[in-house]
Specification:
The protein has helices spanning 9-22, 30-49, 57-68, 72-79, 82-89, 97-107, 111-114. By secondary structure, it is an all-alpha fold. The chain has 2 domains: 9-49; 57-114, 434 Repressor (Amino-terminal Domain), CATH 1.10.260.40. Helix 1 runs antiparallel to helix 2, helix 4 crosses helix 5 and helix 4 packs across helix 6. The model has no long low-confidence stretch (mean pLDDT 94).
């Protein structure tokens, strides 16, 4: 197959098969170069046809906490008091720009995910 943009599902499947066949190509070889280009073409096709939306910011924070074994108290340096952390995680208060900056820097997580809009509950 000549290298060209992937326009159909058939092109995409053929490229995936070629990648599988080239996966063990020797570094700096012609096959390794072909593999690299095919991967770029596949990524472009997938970004267009199978986009993955960013997660909800609060769901993402819960995931980070679970994955790293963090508790709410661990978020206090980034969000504020215990009550403020609870308000944010319970969607009563939105994340402020300063909270986002501190979370991104302190927990090494992408700020781009945290700045997305999300639903906040109205106070009773």
């Amino acid at each position: 197959m000549e290298l060209r943009p992937l326009k159909t599902k058939r092109d995409y499947q053929a490229a995936l098969t070629q990648v599988q066949n080239l996966w063990t190509a020797r570094a700096n070889s012609r096959d390794a170069d072909r593999l690299e280009v095919l991967i770029l073409l596949i990524q472009a096709y997938e970004a267009t046809h199978y986009p993955i939306p960013d997660p909800d910011p609060i769901d993402f924070l819960h995931h980070v906490m679970e994955a790293r074994g963090l508790i709410r108290k661990d978020l206090e340096p980034y969000i504020g008091s215990r009550a403020r952390v609870a308000e944010v995680l319970n969607r009563v208060r939105p994340l402020s720009l300063e909270m986002i900056r501190r979370l991104a820097a302190g927990l090494k997580i992408p700020a781009e995910v945290l700045i997305k809009n999300y639903e906040v509950k109205r106070a009773a």
